[in-house]
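Ticket #4471: structure output looks truncated?

Reporter: J.K.
Steps to reproduce: submitted the chain below (154 residues) through the standard prediction queue, then opened the result file.
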Amino acid sequence: MKVVNRVVLDSFPIPSSSAILFYSEALLFQEKELILEALLFQEKELILEALLFQEKLISASLLFQEKLISASLLFQEKELILEALLFQEKLISASLLFQEKELISASLLFQEKLISASLLFQEKELISASLLFQEKELISAAHDSRAMRILGIY
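Returned output as attached by the reporter:
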């Protein structure tokens, strides 16, 4: 096999220095082209990875913001419900207090009128009884005075 290779090698002419220089420049140019293509490919890959990473970050950020907004709205809803319940409680308490005051006031007024009517009735009864008693006394005294006159004692 060495002989075959030697024959093959001998059959090729030895290149000149200008040809070697030309091939060398061509290889350098190809190498530069390959390096540029590799760099471009790497750059494209890096850009794609960066864009994919940005997309994931944006997606995660939006999801987090959505959850934050949802939690905030839920908290605000709870706060509003608590405030409404507290307001209702105060309103009911004030209403009950007002009703209680009104009932007490009406009850006291009714009791006052009842006592006043009772005292007026008792006063009339006492006056009537007193007048009746005085009338009986006067009649009795008049009878006694008449009887005494009749008897001549007066």
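Triage note (M.O.): checked the attachment and the full token line is present. The CA atoms of residues 5 and 11 lie 10 Å apart.
Status: closed, working as intended.
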